[in-house]
TrEMBL record:
Superkingdom of the organism of origin: Bacteria
Keywords: Ligase
One Pfam assignment: AMP-binding
Hydrolase recorded as keyword: no
GO molecular function terms noted in the UniProt entry: ligase activity
Protein name: Acyl-coenzyme A synthetase/AMP-(Fatty) acid ligase
Presence of keyword Iron: no
Domain (AMP-dependent synthetase/ligase) ranges: 25-311
Coiled-coil spans in chain: none
């Protein structure tokens, strides 16, 4: 099926700023210990745009966040679309490129092997800032600037088109939420890749459209996170995930003062949220959204069970999920999440996902709740409960689990679970593994989970 990039031409002609710049000297990024101004950034964007091949789209593979920002804007400035695979694994990149004939791949590194048609960014060194003569660029509001692919945690990754108008709208909600917590100005360190939609919103759109400064790196280890934060002026916001936050808390490391922490990509255990706030002395804001919708709600997990909707967002519960209306959406989107709304319709409580709901022998449970009970077992450091594809003669699908528990065996874990859940929901098989196959954002693609089980069966 061919992708139509100019999807929203039915709108009246309109152009929106590529870059918010209340002043050309405002700091857009910190890179290699140096600040980069908006004017310097725009010079790099124009330099890169002049070198790009003619095409409809490009896979943005830049690892350095500043290089990604330059490439993202250069691609958009040329009227092209950023393709954002669910991972940078060669197979995922090849599949996306096959779905977009004639596209190319773009990155800042010399890759070996490199994707077909790989184009390397020019070196992002100092350039004269001549942007005032040319003016600040604008691009069509209806231009599809990005196509983000879902993680595949519930199946095959799917493509989601994002226009520049939709990104402006979604950024407004995130910016208002963060400003209410930390004030007008702040800077960001993110542990998530910019190719992921959460990383795109919090570490690409905020600096482009919100006047926020961002660190160019993607620190992984606790010491790297601390060093990146130290490079930035206060107030600082750490954009991260439950997996990364747990590692920071357990490391015992001292971080520079934080104004706030933001988390997404997986449910935040309340105990972890409490430990993080106590450890780092800053509020933790959990945000709710998807690749399909972008972020549309948030909560402070230590103080609220309910999520608060962003302005002008409306939810409509359905039998098989929830319909979302939001300023960034041109049409309502149906999510698999099941929610219950407050009386005024401005808050909601998450009840689970339709795909997570289990019914066996007339009894009901959810995979999310079973996973939480597995993680609550002392000695289980990480784990997941999931349903297999093959059903029995009655169509009932077996439940499996993977657990990271170096000091426990499978029997001990099952014995503890047996006291916490109905026996019909006991996962079989339950395998003890050294680590779960999490991707760059901490999610667990379904295909990777099934591969772990397949490897175990082939060796047993």
């Amino acid at each position: 099926m061919a992708i139509v990039y100019d999807t929203f031409q039915r709108e009246a002609p309109q152009r929106l700023a590529l870059l918010h710049a209340d002043t050309p000297t405002r700091v857009l990024a910190w890179r290699d210990g140096q600040s980069v101004s908006a004017a310097q950034f725009l010079a790099h964007v124009r330099q890169a745009a002049a070198t790009l091949p003619g095409a409809g789209a490009a896979v943005n593979l830049c690892e350095d966040r500043y290089a990604f920002l330059v490439a993202f804007c250069a691609i958009a400035l040329r009227g092209q679309t950023n393709l954002l695979p669910s991972s940078r694994a060669p197979q995922a990149v090849d599949e996306v490129m096959a779905a977009h004939p004639g596209c190319y791949a773009l990155g800042e590194l010399a890759l070996d092997p490199a994707p077909t048609g790989y184009h390397r960014l020019p070196a992002l060194t100092a350039l004269p800032c001549d942007d005032e003569a040319e003016g600040w660029p604008q691009i069509p509001a209806g231009q599809v600037v990005a196509i983000g692919y879902t993680s595949g945690s519930t199946g095959t990754p799917s493509a989601n088109l994002k226009t520049w108008r939709s990104f402006h709208a979604s950024n407004a909600g995130n910016l208002a939420m963060l400003r209410a917590v930390v004030g007008e100005r702040f800077s960001v360190v993110a542990t998530v890749p910019p190719q992921h939609m959460y990383g795109m919103e919090m570490s690409v759109l905020l600096p482009l459209l919100g006047g926020v400064g961002v660190h160019a790196g993607r620190p992984f280890f606790p010491a790297d996170v601390a060093a990146a934060l130290a490079d930035l002026p206060a107030p600082r916001v750490l954009v991260t995930t439950p997996v990364h936050l747990r590692a920071l808390v357990e490391s015992g490391i001292v971080l520079p003062p934080l104004a706030a922490m933001v988390s997404a990509t997986a449910p935040m255990p309340p105990e972890l949220a409490q430990a993080a706030e106590e450890r780092f002395g800053a509020p933790l804001q959990e945000v709710f959204g998807s690749t399909e919708t972008c972020v549309f709600a948030s909560r402070r997990t230590t103080q609220e069970d309910d999520w608060s909707l962003y302005p002008d967002v409306q939810l409509h519960p359905q039998p098989d999920g929830t319909q979302v209306e939001a300023p960034q959406l041109d049409a309502p989107r149906l999510l698999a999440d099941i929610v219950s709304l407050s009386a005024d319709g401005r808050r909601f409580r998450l009840r689970g996902r339709q795909a997570d709901m289990l019914e066996i022998a007339g009894k009901r449970a959810s995979l999310g709740d079973l996973t939480r009970r597995l993680l609550a077992i002392p000695g289980v450091r990480d784990g997941v409960v999931f349903q297999l594809d093959d059903g029995d003669a009655l169509g009932v699908h077996r439940i499996a689990a993977l657990a990271v528990a170096p000091e426990l065996d499978e029997h001990a874990i099952l014995d503890t679970l047996r006291r916490a859940i109905d026996p019909v929901f006991l996962p079989r098989p339950l395998l003890r593994v050294a680590a779960l196959p999490r991707n760059e954002t901490g999610k667990l693609p379904r295909a990777a989970l099934l591969e772990v089980l397949a490897r175990h069966h082939s060796h047993s």
